[in-house]
Amino acid sequence: IIPDAGTICIEDLIPNEEMVVTISRAGYIKRTPLSIYRYQRRGGKGRTGMSTREEDVVTFLLTAMAHNYLLIFTNRGQVFWLKVYEIPEVGPSALGKAVVNLLPLQQGEKIQTILPVPEFAPDHFAVMATKNGVIKKSDLSAYANPRSSGIRAINMDDDDELISVVITDGQQDLFLMSRKGKCIRVKEDEFRPLGRVSRGIRGMNVKGTQLVGMDVIDPGKCMLVVTEKGFGKRTAEESYRCQGRGGQGVLNIKVTERNGHVIGFRQVGEENGIMLITDGGRLIRMPVSQISKIGRVTQGVKLIDLAEGETVVDLTVLDETEDTREDTREEE
After folding, report:
1. Are 291 and 234 in contact (CB under 8 A)?
2. Domains in the chain with CATH codes
3. Distance CA 108, CA 258 (A)
């Protein structure tokens, strides 16, 4: 008797382990098990995270479970749906697979944000931010079943681009930051839910610069800021008071010749780790506890030793246990 194979799902055969998803500027994507990357001390040189062609650089990474859904938002405001395990799994130094072989991207369209979504929970929202400081909030369920060709997530001006998307419960504070080191904390309820194809409203005045990202405030955590020349700092979230939407914000980190411009920020706790990636394809992973907790208007400390002309292009936060930290120390 042959068992009924119709009840077997391919997902049941794939281990639900934590993956690092990496994307290059030229559009190559891959996933690699997080367990491959060991912790290193602050200021270390890191290890190769992706091979790149001479003219290409690695620009984006995230961590997600293999069975998670991914909402893939592009710079043009389109959104696609994918499972993490559908991305090719390769080694740390491999190039990966061209995104156009997985998603029907248009000429000049590129992936801007990948959002891991365990489930499309009711009463939750997708909040989007553009480089020109526009914010839009829509029901998360509106993006539960994108077509294979993608669906429109937000309408924007011709000179604008989508840069960040977060999931919220409708009652949180949003944190926005510009490339020149200014930031603003705004209550989410200042933004009413809008239809999927509508435009957003002004979240931060970024005249003369642009937003580098947006996150949801988690009380008690710190905001970790990283600059293109490998410097960073973390500051307690209570150091930032709420302001009305549309303002210029306050200075968060000094943008100097030493630091370079801000490339991004993330919200972290003492239990977290972080992973930085450079345009040379190198990664460094370290515990957040190694990064100084200092005041708002400061320059930060060196996080990674860069080669001449090399810059940091992205960062991601890792959820780590004490056992994991001890295991990685034993490997060193």
Report:
1. yes
2. 16-331 (2.120.10.90)
3. 33
